[in-house]
Amino acid sequence: MSRPIQAARGLSKGLRAAAVATAILALAACQPQIQQPSDILFAPTFSKSRQNIPSTYNTPYDCRQFTGSGWKGIAGGVVYDFSTRYQISQAGCFKTQAECQSWLSVMRSYIDVPRFIRCNPYNA
Q: In which region does residue 104 sit, left (phi positive, over 0), alpha (psi from -120 to 50) or beta (all else)?
């Protein structure tokens, strides 16, 4: 392989690395809690403490306040927050199946060991 081709490939790899580094720094500028580059790699993306898990209670999706027909989503299982392990169970009522499935997708990101995750037709 000739030297100009090798030089061009090396330049291409260098430009890609520079673009990735620039993107990481740009994202870091948007995150006020990030103080050092290692914070980007080792910081959790979200907290799984009980206070931060989404809840439908006292919201428009609370089944106690839901009227009419729609879909009831139920999500439950085990959550691990580092050394803490606890069970959660959440329910929400939605007008459409798509809303219910979207809520389940969010809950799946919090539940590490799902016991049940489903949407069923519901009439209040």
A: alpha
Strand (E) or helix (H) holding 91: strand 84-94
Diameter of the chain measured on Cα atoms: 74
The pLDDT averaged over each successive group of 10 residues in the chain (124 residues) is: 60 62 52 55 62 86 93 94 87 95 92 94 88
What does the alpha-carbon distance between residue 71 and residue 7 come to, in Å, rounded to a whole number?
Answer: 60
**DSSP assigned state of 82:** T
Tokens 């392990």 found at? 85
Residue among 93, 95, 119, 115 nearest 105 (CA) = 119
From residue 55, how far is each of 6, 84, 99, 111, 121 by CA, in Å? 56, 19, 15, 13, 20
